[in-house]
Fold this sequence. Notes:
Blueprint: H1 5-15, E1 21-26, E2 29-34, E3 37-43, E4 46-49, H2 53-59, E5 64-65, E6 74-77, H3 84-97
Antiparallel strand pairs: 1-2, 2-3, 3-4, 4-6, 5-6
Helix pairs in contact: 2-3
Amino acid sequence: MASDQKFVDFVIDQIGYSRQVTCKKMFGEYGLYFDDKLFALVCDNKLFIKPTLSGRAYIIDVVEAPPYPGAKNQFLIEEQLENSDWLKKLVSITVAELPEPKPGKKK
Length: 107
């Protein structure tokens, strides 16, 4: 089941970094980017955050699941989805720990 744009818009609104957070549609699902860093996926109208050590410490009771068949487990965010301050902090510490994206190849 593909995610719908209304859910993605809700998630982005909850995160709150309106200028930095963007989404890109991928195969009926969405990737969420902070500037150029992919930090989360929205699949089947569920939010999956890339796992980091800092994120794990912040969440405490981590729920992990693959966003799609064959994918590595990521943090599944369900219960705190409506807690904007908590979600904003999780995104901030996750993005800080993720490596910079590799430069794209020139054509």
